[in-house]
Write a structure and sequence with these properties.
The chain has helices spanning 62-69, 101-108, 117-124, 169-172, 214-219, 242-252, 280-295, 310-320, 330-334, 356-364; strands at residues 4-12, 18-23, 29-31, 52-55, 77-84, 87-94, 112-114, 140-144, 153-156, 162-167, 177-179, 197-212, 222-224, 230-232, 235-240, 254-255, 258-259, 270-274, 300-303, 324-328, 337-342, 348-352. The protein is an alpha+beta fold and 365 residues long. Among the domains are: 38-179, YbaK/aminoacyl-tRNA synthetase-associated domain (YbaK protein, Alpha-Beta Complex), CATH 3.90.960; 270-364, 3-Layer(aba) Sandwich (Rossmann fold). Strands 1, 2, 3, 12 and 15 form a 5-stranded antiparallel beta sheet that branches. The chain has a 5-stranded mixed beta sheet with strand order 7-5-6-8-11. A hairpin with a 2-residue loop joins β5 (77-84) and β6 (87-94). It is elongated, with a radius of gyration of 32 Å.
Length: 365
């Protein structure tokens, strides 16, 4: 739908489809599509000789160039070539920094995708790994913020097997803009000074963003302000992933035996288990307790199966994970007692049958 001021509500999970960057102190969190980090910028050297073409036979990658020229990776301006809509775009990145396509698309306001090898050759006369900003015609040239003001750089010469050194981006190129275009890496410092970043998977539980007046203007949706002047309504949008909340809760609340529901999310408040339903006394008591608890306002799941062993019933109850299990067995029933099991802690308590509802209500409150 578009809009700005986007805020995502994420939960860290190995099952997540998003990737997020988190600072060590927990005060910085961002989707990697927009995350930034505090990394060293390019250097501006006092000596600034003119550009010089160098022969680099068979050298294509940054690592190969580092080994061939025996220079620091930070001296290399990697050229990445994309289409921004129908426009050819050259993006300069420092060393092995990875271009973040989402950031590039946001900067351009266009759909972006890598340029095909044959189109690159047709437009520049060179293959990938030999492209550079010096003398390049017909391209919009953008550079990552790390390279702003840098000189003494090395990049492709726009002909195969050659590179250019001593590049001063201010002097030798026409850069159309410097932007944060890189993908952050694990261990880099958070931009808020909150320590090193962790890169983790996450599940998006909700999303809010500001639409502004885009749709209000189109629909002529207006109101009269305090001065009686007509103004467009400012709109926002939100989404809540109900199924994702359930999935995330289970990701965070389970053990080897199954789900452990929180009281706020549990499908039922409690799970009534008739241990030996072939016993008429147990069957009658279990049925009566089930109806009484429902009448008291509790949401109750009732296991009234007669041909299932107690062990299977207990396993199923732990698997389903309701907050409380109300267990009705012959021995305790004869003594006027009902057993309650706390699913999360595993603690078992015997209560008088007459105090059962009050005990449950106290726990759930």
């Amino acid at each position: 739908m578009g809009g700005t001021g986007s805020q995502e509500f994420m939960m860290e999970s190995d099952a997540g489809e998003d990737v997020i960057a988190l600072s060590a102190d927990g005060r910085y969190a961002a989707n990697v599509e927009v995350a930034s980090s505090d990394v060293p910028k390019g250097v501006r050297h006092s000596e600034n000789p003119p550009v010089e073409e160098i022969h680099t036979p068979g050298v294509k990658t940054i690592d190969e160039l580092v080994a061939f020229l025996k220079v620091d990776e930070a001296r290399l301006a990697k050229s990445v070539v994309y289409w921004g809509g129908e426009k050819p775009i050259l993006v300069l990145m420092m060393g092995n920094d990875e271009l973040n396509e989402a950031k590039l698309g946001s900067v351009l306001g266009l759909d972006v995708h890598p340029m095909e090898a044959e189109r690159l050759l047709a437009l520049t006369g060179a293959d990938g790994g030999s492209i550079g900003p010096v003398g390049l015609k017909g391209f919009t040239i953008l550079a990552d913020k790390r390279l702003e003001g840098a000189n003494g750089l090395i990049s492709g010469a726009n002909r195969n097997d050659y590179h250019v050194k001593n590049i001063d981006l201010k002097r030798d190129c026409v850069i159309d803009g410097y932007h944060d275009l890189r993908t952050v890496r694990e261990g880099e410092q958070a931009p808020n000074g909150g320590g090193p970043l962790r890169i983790v998977k996450g599940i998006e539980l909700g999303h809010i963003f500001k639409l502004g007046t885009k749709y209000a203007d189109a629909l002529h949706a207006t109101f009269l302000d305090e001065n009686g002047k007509e103004a467009s309504i400012i709109m926002g949008s939100y989404g809540i992933g109900i199924e994702r909340i359930v999935a995330c809760h289970i990701e965070q609340n389970h053990d080897a035996n199954g789900i452990i529901w929180d009281k706020a999310l549990a499908p039922f408040d409690l799970h009534v288990i008739g241990v030996a339903m072939k016993s008429q006394a147990v069957a009658d008591a279990a049925e009566s307790i089930y109806e009484e608890l429902q009448a008291d306002g509790f949401d109750v799941l009732f296991d009234d199966r007669k041909d299932i062993s107690p062990g299977f019933k207990f396993k199923d109850a732990d698997l389903l994970g309701m907050p409380l299990q109300v267990i009705i067995g012959e021995k305790n029933l004869a003594a006027g007692k009902i057993e309650i099991k706390n699913r999360r802690s595993g603690e078992r308590t015997l209560v008088d049958r007459g105090n059962l509802a009050a005990t449950i209500r106290s726990f759930l409150s």
